[in-house]
Amino acid sequence: MIKNPIIMVAMLFMANQTICQNIDQPKTIGESITFNSQVLETEREIQVYLPENYDNALTKYPVLYVLDGQRYFLNGIAFQHNLTWQQIVPNFIIVGIVTDSQKRRSLLYDESTLFIQFLEKELIPKIDSDYRTLEERIYFGWEMAAGLGVEIMADVPSLFNGYLLASPTFISEDRLDNVNKMMEGNPEQNLKIYASLGVVEGWAVASMSSLDSIIKRSPHKNIEWKYNFSENENHYTTPLTTINEGLKFFFSDYGPLRFYTLKEFNDFGGINALREHYNIRGDRYQIAGDVHDDTKHYLLIQSYRENNFEMFNQLVIGFGGKAFIKEYYNRASWFNRFATFFLSNNELADALEIFEVGILKFPDSSILNNGMGNYYKANGELNNAKKWYKKAIKIAETNNEPELSEYKKNLESIKN
Q1: What is the Cα–Cα distance from 92 to 64, expressed in whole angstroms?
Q2: Which burial class, exposed, middle or buried, applies to 309 when counting CB atoms under 10 A from its CB (0-12, 13-18, 19+)?
Q3: pLDDT digits 0-9 by tens, 117-153
Q4: DSSP sequence for 55-104
Q5: Which of 3, 39, 221, 269 is most buried as measured by Cβ atoms within 10 A of its Cβ?
Q6: Phi and psi (nearest 5°) for 57?
Q7: At 165, which helix (H) or strand (E)?
Q8: What is the pLDDT of residues 168-183, one digit of tens each?
C-alpha cells in the first residue's frame, strides 16, 4: 500500500492522463460496477473508491459524486489523498459516473430530467444501501455536467449538500429562472456551491454572470456561494482547481481552527464558542466533539507569543492540564518554553511539573537540564541548581552545542 500521499497523488495524475487517452483500458484503482438502470433503460458503469481502512471500521462517510468519471474519477481520489493527509478534509467515498461522449448532450441536457431521476431514484439509493454513507453528498461536474448541477440545485435542492461546478455551460434561461425562484423562496437545504470559470471562456461568461447575480441578490445564511472567475484557468484546467478548492470550501469546518491573534479568538467567542464549534463538527461528521489538538497547540503558542500568561494558564487548565502538553509535544524545546513561561510568572510548581515531564521524555536534552537548574535557582535550592547546570554543560560539551557558554554563565552566577 502506498503511504506517501505525494507519491500517491503523482501516480494518480499519471494514471489519470493515461486513462483519459484510452478510457477503455482496465481501471485498477477502486472498483467498477455495472447495473441496469430502469429509468434510463440502459446499463450504467459506476466507479467506486472507498477510503483507506474502510473495511476495518464502522465509520460513515460523505460521498463525492463525479460526473464524467472516465476523466475525473482519479482526480477526486488524488485530491482526497492530498487533502486528508493534513486533515483539511475528512475521508470520503468517491463515486464516478461514466458518460458516453456521443450521448453526453442528450443525457445531461436534452434528457436531463431522466438523468436526475436516475440519480435520485436509483444511483444514490444504491450507494447509500451498499456503503456506509453520511447525508453529506457533493456533486462535481464539468462543462455540461456543471450546467446539469445548476438544474439539480434548483429543482431538487435536497439531493446534494455541495456543488463543485467547473466551467458550467448550457445554463439556459429556464435553469436561471428556476435558480431565481429557489433563491427568492425560502430554501431550507444547507448548500455550499463552488464554481469556477476562466476569463478566456467567453461563451459562458454572460450566463455565469447572471447566475452569480441571482444568487447574490437573494442571500441566505444556509446557502454559501463562491465564484472563482479566474485569469489563470481555462476550459480544461478549471476541473482541477474546482475539485481542490471546492472540497476545501465544502469541508471548511473540518480542519483544525487557527487564530492568529488572541483578539481574533476572543471575537470568535473564546473557549465556549470553540467547544460549540467542535461539538457541531462532531455531530456533522459523526466523530468525537473534542477540540482539535492542533487548535489547542495554536492557542497555547499564541498566548505565549503575546505574553498573555493569564490566557495561557486558562487554556492549559481548559485543555486538560499538563497531560495534553505531555502527550502532544515531541520536542524538548516546547517543554522548556512552557515551563519557563510558568517560571517567569512565579508559578514554580507548574514549572517543575512541566520540566520533569520533559526530562522523562528527553533525558539527554541540555536545554531541559538547564531549565531544571533555573527552577532550583528560583526556588533557592542552589546545590540542586548546580547539579542540573553541570548536567546541561556536560551534554552540551558532548554534542558541541552553541548554548554551552550560556549554561556555563548560569553555573558561574551561583558560584559567586
Answers
A1: 7
A2: middle
A3: 999 999 999 999 999 999 999 999 999 999 999 999 9
A4: GG----EEEEEEESHHHHHHHHHHHHHHHHHTTSS---EEEEE---TTTH
A5: 39
A6: -145, 175
A7: strand 162-166
A8: 999 999 999 999 999 9
Q: The C-alpha cell of 10 is what?
A: 503523482
Task: For residue 22, give every residue at least 6 positions away whose Cβ sits within 8 Å of its Cβ, in sequence order, or none.
Answer: none
Confidence at residue 101, expressed as pLDDT on a 0 to 100 scale: 86
The angle subtended at Cα 169 by Cα 166 and Cα 173, nearest 5°, is 130
Name the strand (E) or helix (H) holding 35.
Answer: strand 31-37
Residue 79 exposure: Cα atoms within 13 Å on the Cβ side: 20
Please tell me the distance from the alpha carbon of residue 176 to that of residue 158, in angstroms, as a whole number. Answer: 18
d(CA 77, CA 69): 11
Identify the residue with better confidence: 184 or 7.
184
What does pTM read for this prediction?
0.86
> Exposed e or buried b for every residue in 45-73, given b needs 16+ CB within 10 A?
bbbbbbbeeeeeeeeebbbbbbbbbbbbb
d(CA 44, CA 70): 12
CA geometry: angle at 57 spanning 54 and 61, to 5°? 55
How distant is the alpha carbon of residue 62 from its chain centre?
A: 13
pLDDT band at 28 (very low <50, low <70, confident <90, very high): low
| Residue 221 CB neighbours (<10 A) | 6
Q: Are 150 and 168 in contact (CB under 8 A)?
A: yes
